[in-house]
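Project standup — Tuesday

K.O.: blocked on the structure for the chain from last sprint. Re-posting the sequence here as requested.
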Amino acid sequence: MIAVLQRVNRAAVLVEGSTVGEIGHGLLILLGVSREDTAADAELLVKKIAACRIFRDGADKMNLSVRDVAGGVLVVSNFTLLADYAHGNRPSYFEAASPAEAQSLYLYFAELMAREVSSVATGEFGAHMQISMEADGPVTIVMDSRVLQHKGKEKKI
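H.V.: unblocked you, prediction finished:
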């Protein structure tokens, strides 16, 4: 599972001209679900994201999490994060989960995130969406659950 976190002052997602999700200060998260992902991947990423200290404190240091600042989270499904662009000019998406599997894990991720932060909004799974946002920083972090799992195993050895 891949999550691209963008610290924002505001973000909104529209489908066919209507706003389906929006937040103020917080995180815009683009979420890609792979064929190998499970609920454990969602759980791992949600915990890491909710605690990730990328918001400024009173001393202008990035010491606060989205939880600490009572920020919102806008989660948008994005299968193109799983693009394989190594061969040719047209990316393939073989590693992306099937739509049914991806939707289930996407909704589970959003549900878990709602337990961690005060406000969670989502895009519309499978829809063509327009996303508007005002970046704050900019601060952009890419998290991959496979990398987190691997790092965790290294530390236990």
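K.O.: great, moving the ticket to review. The chain has one domain: 2-156. The first helix runs from residue 39 to 51.
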